[in-house]
Amino acid sequence: MATAHEAEAILIENLRLRHTDLATLLNDCSTHWGFEDPIYRFYHQSYKVYALQGQTTRIVEALRALVPERPLSEWFKTIVAEGTGRTLTTQANREWLRETRPIVEAFFHARYFLEMAVRYAELEEPPEILPSGYAALLYLYRLRC
After folding, report:
1. Any idea where the domains of the chain sit in the sequence?
2. Nearest to 113, CA basis, from 75, 37, 59, 50
């Protein structure tokens, strides 16, 4: 496994190399149908909120591919695990928040990291003063303690 320093260099390089694909994915997750409507569906108590799980999974796959040899943050993995793989049940409407809020939460966290990946794709080397979003990316890949 690469050292933390080497892994950070891989992250920066892959952010640049995959910027277009990451930006396209972020755009897909920011449109009316990819963001605005699914969040509305949460408040409307519509089963369509469950579709966010697919977007979350796509984002997580793209993030994992940036530094594939590094494990992702345990907190992030827990949030994603709790918010994906869910199926609509007859109980869902009675327990709407408990059943669907993890879906929205996982999407928001994944989308946040995707946005930070797009934002910091122009870096050529690790910054001396860490912007918060870049530092969060380092936590995602367990490159910062």
Report:
1. 4-140
2. 59
